[in-house]
Amino acid sequence: MKTILHKATTRGHADHGWLNSYHTFSFAGYHNPERIHFGALRVLNDDTVAPGMGFGRHPHDNMEIISIPTFGDLVHKDSMGTSQVIKQGDVQVMSAGTGIEHSEKNKNNDKEVRFFQIWIFPDKKNVEPRYDQKNFSNADKHNKLLTVVSPVGMEDGGVQIHQHAWFSLGKLDKDFSVSYPLKKKENGVYVFIIEGDVTINGEKLNRRDGLGITDTGKLEIKADSNAEVLLMEVPV
Length: 236
Prior knowledge:
Jelly Rolls; 22 strands; 7-stranded antiparallel sheet; 56% strand; globular
């Protein structure tokens, strides 16, 4: 088993006033040659957007872009005609493919919105752009690892992306333990601790820490406090 630990305090940081963003991997003005990506996982941004503010319309192509809000409401609009509100409990995916433009804005003028923006390299280029969004309740994630993102064509309840990757979310009670067997033995898993304290394969992790794990078939996860975790199994 090989691991790479990214403590929360070592992430890149940009505060633009309207946007406060922490970057696990190199992004925009933050460049770390040792932290470009973890396999197919290219971007993991922890974003807070001020009331009424947001990202203006901008283009993407050939990337799978996933948004996971943890507080507030985010308005998404794109060049396919999609207009949706993404809220806590939702997981949204946009396959940029041949090219798409979109905007994201805080729906509310009286509270911030917080969300994770994640980019995954696709396994095929120039696909037709697509959008998907699903809601997953806290009860569905309680003391289990719920699949919320999965490959196109696999009907296992998650939103689908063009990559052999699976995301799982879990809200774990203190002292609860759970195993995660990898879907594909050649994949790796990047674990991000959204809240709380967790021990994974003997490594102690805290809020907003990230741990990349390769060369193993299974993860053993124990919640050292009430915790919320995001597991991203990706080709490496």
